[in-house]
Write the structure tokens for this entry.
Amino acid sequence: MRDKMSDTEATTDGVELKTFVQPYRRSLIVGSALLLLTNLLDKAIPWLLQQAIDGLERGDLEVMKRSAIIVVALAAGLWIVRTGSRVVVFNVGRDVEHDLRNEVMRRVHRLGPTFFRSMPVGEVMSRATNDLAQVRLFVGFGALNLVNSIFAFGGALVLMIALSPTLTLWALLPYPAVVFIARFFGKRIYARSRDAQSALGQLADAAQENLAGVRVVRAFSLEESEKERFEEINQRAVDANMRLVVLRGVMWPVFMLVASIGTLIVIWKGGEMVLNDELTIGKFAAFNAYLAQLVWPTLAFGYLLSIIQRGRASFERVTEILDAEDEIEESAAPKSIAGRGDIEVRSLNFAYGETPILKDVSFHVPAEGSLAIMGTVGSGKSTLAALLPRLIDAPKESVFLDSVDVTEARLGELRDAIAYAQQEPFLFSTTVRQNIAFSMEDPGASDAEERIERACREACVWDEIQLLPKKLETLVGERGVQLSGGQKQRIALARALLSEPKVLVLDDPMSAVDAKTEATILEAIDRAKEGRTLILVTHRIAAASRADQIIVLDRGHILESGTHEELVQIDGVYASMARRQSIETELSTL
């Protein structure tokens, strides 16, 4: 069995399961010691049975009485020790699952958009839940049964040989077949386990998409087609799991057949030896009891094989997350940032793979200054905004904060210094307060309430929060579904302002808002830029005109740059956009 375990050791070229098991080796040693004691107590009972039966045959009732009392005491001790061994070893599996889940979450927070383009959110969720549950069984239940089976098999075999070497050889005749059966089923269980876990991942992804996009499904009246699509994926998951269940179902009777053949041989040959006075009735009874203890590890081996192979398959799927390369790595010798938020971009070139996005972009925003970035869809505005706090990895010697290359800055300090409010604000399914206080180290601090209110007022959303049913304690729903688009934008802005950053990057905060909300957000932007550097990505002239500088991107190049007045006088792209938006505003007021 140990050889088989080594064949199925869960490792990859990167993360190894033993790395997560090693911190709990002391618990495994204690658990193994308890399992050894369990088996010693268990093996003593057939020996006492032999003494009692042989004593009964001789008419010695005192021996039988004493043996019965000791058996009861051993059974009680066995119950206590067996329970203790299971608690200790099973807990190791749960502790390893806990550590692995934390590591998966840590890795997910570090991985960039390239990873999530290849692995959907639902698939990640499935690996962090379904697959880790199988790893837990592999480490806890699998380890317990492996060690227990070795002790049980080895102990029973030694005692059977002590009772009758000849009968032991007869009993073991069918057992070499176990190796071939294990090899046959092992490979197939592993493959089908991977298929089953993959199908569950696809099912989780489909469920997550349908829940997140339920409004879109209803809007297009696609309930029936989505129901059919989900049914198809669901059926594939059922079929994949049933193929695994059928294989396991066939495997059990095969192992049972091997064990039963051994029992039949012992009854035939052992009975003959008793009749020929080569074996006492007590020894024959004890031998059969030990044989039963040999049969159990054989049957358990089939189940253990299934647990190991499914655990291997699941851990391999989890390591696809754990081994994924970080797109953004902290410098080996990170530098601290000291300054008030001076931003400089020098000859920045950036591409996604072979597709160029930004070409030779340069600008400088002094501390407490402001810059508006404008351009058509696909011009690289949002990419440029994400490069500043290094949410996307910038080329070296291209982006600087307070004269420090962002690729050499401490990531924690960089993200603290540059607050980024994305184009589509994400709110957690909790209260308004918890969404705003998300960046706070201690939301329960004595000044927390005052800081939250100040950030909300600065983002021009405090008065509207007071009108909500439970004010700050109002649940916002999935992704802020209970709030308007403008409210979500400003709550996200308040969250960014609460961290008191040196630099505030706003990525198109007025996308898809009405004129009234736009005016409120513009007021919030005016307040937000006081005392800090502001980088504003926008398509609205009304917002851009408030900035000290404006750059206009076109296909990754800076096409125009200057102040609002300068760009209007140039009569280029910016001026054309200004005239068009001015006409749109006039028409909307008619």
User: Anything to note?
Assistant: The beta strands are 343-352, 355-365, 370-375, 399-401, 404-405, 418-421, 503-507, 533-537, 549-554, 557-562. Confidence is low (pLDDT under 50) at residues 1-13.
